[in-house]
Amino acid sequence: MLVFVVLGVVLLLAAVGVLGYRRGSRRGGWPGPVPAPPAPDVPQPWQALRDRVAAALPALPVGATLVVSDDGTESHLYVRYQRLGDVMTLDASGSQAWGGPWPVEPAQDERMHQLGWQRPADRRGAYDRTSDYRLDVSTGSAVGADLAATLAAHGVVALATLGGASDHDWQWEQYA
Length: 176
Description:
Blueprint: H1 2-16, H2 47-56, E1 65-69, E2 78-84, E3 87-92, H3 106-114, E4 133-138, H4 145-161, E5 171-175
Antiparallel strand pairs: 1-2, 1-5, 2-3, 3-4
Helix pairs in contact: 2-4
């Protein structure tokens, strides 16, 4: 009987994340949140958008999401920032090659991978089956200005890499 009680407690703790489960992690797979990769160079026409995103990220509350998209939805070209405790998850438009909404050429896919974005195929069998490119970054308890600028640069360069236009009227949506 004691064995069943202990097993039940272990399963309960695992279910709520006490035993080290982290969003984006799985046994033998991608390790989950990592320190932010170095900020990529942001082309001059994209710097105003980067600065706008960088100003918004430190104020994004835990549990909130900011979406920057070409049409106000996540059905086309977008970058989504989600603040999840001590992790900021960035998702960029998924490739049609993996069931996503956006046509992505092999060179674009390779560039996203070089920039540190995880390919959707890298997460197959994990907790989700989305078609988005993903970057899970450890943030600590707060997102400071330097980290916000780095995360903003990654998102804006992803939009540029995936074929967005710097002069587009980018739509913003924030929700909890």
